[in-house]
Amino acid sequence: MKELDPLVFLAVFQEMLGPLLWVLLILIIGGTLAFLILLIREKGIVARRLVRSELAGLAGGVLALILMAKVSSSGFTDAGGPADWFLIALVFGLGLIGTAILAYAAAGWNNMLRHNKS
Q1: What is the pTM of this model?
Q2: Is-contact 104 35, C-beta < 8 A?
Q3: Could you read off the pLDDT of 58-110 as tens digits, one per residue?
Q4: Could you state, in order of their start, the residue ranges of all structural domains in the chain?
Q5: Residue 51's pLDDT is what?
Q6: Which of 64, 60, 69 is nearest to 91 (CA)?
Q7: CA-to-CA distance for 96 and 62, rounded, in angstroms?
């Protein structure tokens, strides 16, 4: 394989995740947009909210690993080489970061909407 084709990755992920792929893509795009808009509106990051979001991110990393184990044909005991462990760490890290971004955006918008009603 001399070149990477994004459609091949899309086909593989569609085969592995099924309709969940589209739900995850909508969460990724929508959460990222909500996070960026929130950062622009607040003109910075709120430290307390960030720490709480990072704690939620730990749970998201674990859930990402559980999802990976469910959709793949192998488990964690099958990981043999450094590439396998790197992939496991990458999945955990992406789950952690994605969940932290979603939790930060949800908490920020919730806080903003509550204060606007008062």
Answers
A1: 0.83
A2: yes
A3: 999 999 999 888 888 766 667 777 887 888 899 999 999 999 999 999 999 99
A4: 6-117
A5: 95
A6: 64
A7: 8
